[in-house]
Design a protein that fits this description.
The chain is α/β, with parallel strands linked by helices. It has 14 helices and 17 strands. It is elongated and about 70 Å long. It holds the Pfam family PGK.
Length: about 400
């Protein structure tokens, strides 16, 4: 994977840099409720500002569908971004933007209005690309989370301006390269979540790439059913058991060991600490019970498998971790992975919203080698798909 970074840019005196960032943050009552994505911009924006460039931030917010509106304006994010960066950030509307950009001092940072106020942004329209490009000399893509979209601001600009990866994008790409591009073997992947249908392409791709595939969450029930296990009233996609069987066959051919739970935590109701809670062998699940977590014996064996590995990719929880005690397997396995990472024997990369929440819940997110906050882009990368925003940087 070859791409230029900020180290390759050279003298920025008198230059204007268009930086694609992800400012699509959650807000409650007009206040940013999680500033993770804003904090991810700090290294790139402050470095470019320190080098004397005029820094113009390109980003989308919500789904305005090509229609300007107060609800989706990025004006409200200039102040929160300024707070995170520790320096002033101005806001520039698309009306009179050229004059406003010309008036900026070297080192100034400004947020341009929502890129999706242009209907052609999501169509990668050449006219919109040219419109954006007319404001700057250099393009920097720092938004991996939007790299799976071939939009004007995420892909098109890389073809008309000198293009570079920002610091967050650079860190992400290096981490992903270590995890699946050129990993140290053996490689393990943990794939959890509710449904097989949402991660079919991920599973099909991973069995050809990893040595150990650990399947948890509701999707494990579909694989157990494919193996002839009666999963009672557990969440299960019975119509996909043939597909699950095919994935298991492909794993066998590729020399990938698939780990399914052999003891499970079950209950007749999905509630916190229910009276009907019990742990049993997978072959002992009653008709009126549902599997809600992986059992302790299986988790211990999975931990032992991780100890033989050098690389781990994690996407999705092992059980219904939001409700106790069905968080036990996720927490225990996450703590094992974190401990192995801290001692230097494992490179661990995790991504996806539920995964980040689960690792934060386990209190170990800071101990993983890399945590990706990207959702769709991380999944498409796990599926082995080319990400347009990344491919454009490589060209």
């Amino acid at each position: 994977m070859s791409f230029k970074t900020l180290d390759d840019i050279g003298d920025l005196t008198g230059k204007t840099v268009l930086v694609r960032e992800d400012l699509n943050v959650p807000m409650q009552d007009g206040v940013v409720s999680d500033d993770t994505r804003l904090r991810a911009t700090v290294a790139t924006l402050n470095e470019l500002s320190d080098k004397g460039a005029k820094v113009l931030v390109l980003a989308h917010f919500g789904r305005p569908k090509g229609q300007p509106s107060e609800e989706f304006s990025l004006k409200k994010l200039a102040e929160p971004l300024s707070h995170v960066l520790g320096r002033p950030v101005s806001y520039i509307d698309w009306e009179g933007d050229k004059a406003a950009v010309a008036a900026l001092a070297p080192g100034a940072i400004a947020v341009l209005e929502n890129t999706r106020f242009f209907g052609g942004e999501e169509k990668n329209d050449p006219a919109v690309i040219e419109r954006f490009a007319s404001l700057g000399d250099i393009y920097v893509n720092d938004a991996f989370s939007a790299a799976h979209r071939a939009h004007a601001s995420t892909e098109g600009l890389a073809h008309v301006l000198p293009a570079y990866a920002g610091r967050a994008m650079e860190a992400e790409l290096k981490a992903l390269q270590k995890a699946l591009g050129e990993p140290e073997r053996p490689v393990a992947a943990v794939v959890g979540g509710a449904k097989v249908s949402t991660k079919l392409d991920v599973l099909k791709h991973l069995v050809t790439k990893v040595d150990h595939l650990i399947i948890g969450g509701g999707m494990a029930n579909t694989f157990l059913a494919a193996r002839g296990v009666n999963v009672g009233k557990s969440l299960c996609e019975h119509d996909l058991t043939n597909t699950a069987e095919q994935i298991l066959d492909n794993a066998d051919k590729a020399g990938c060991t698939v780990h399914l739970p052999y003891d499970v935590v079950v209950s007749k109701e999905f509630a916190a600490n229910p009276a009907s809670l019990r742990t049993c062998n997978v072959h002992e699940v009653a008709e009126d019970e549902m599997i809600l977590d992986v059992g302790p014996a299986a988790v211990e064996a999975l931990g032992d498998a991780l100890k033989t590995c050098r690389t781990l990719v994690w996407n999705g929880p092992m059980g219904a971790f939001e409700t106790e005690p069905f968080d036990a397997a996720t927490v225990a396995l996450a703590k094992t992975a974190a401990a192995l990472t801290k001692e230097g024997s494992l490179v661990s990369v995790a991504g996806g919203g539920d995964t980040v929440a689960a690792l934060n819940h386990a209190g170990v997110a800071a101990d993983f080698s890399y945590i990706s906050t990207a959702g769709g882009a991380f999944l498409e990368w796990m599926e082995g798909k080319e990400l347009p925003g990344v491919a454009a940087l490589e060209r």
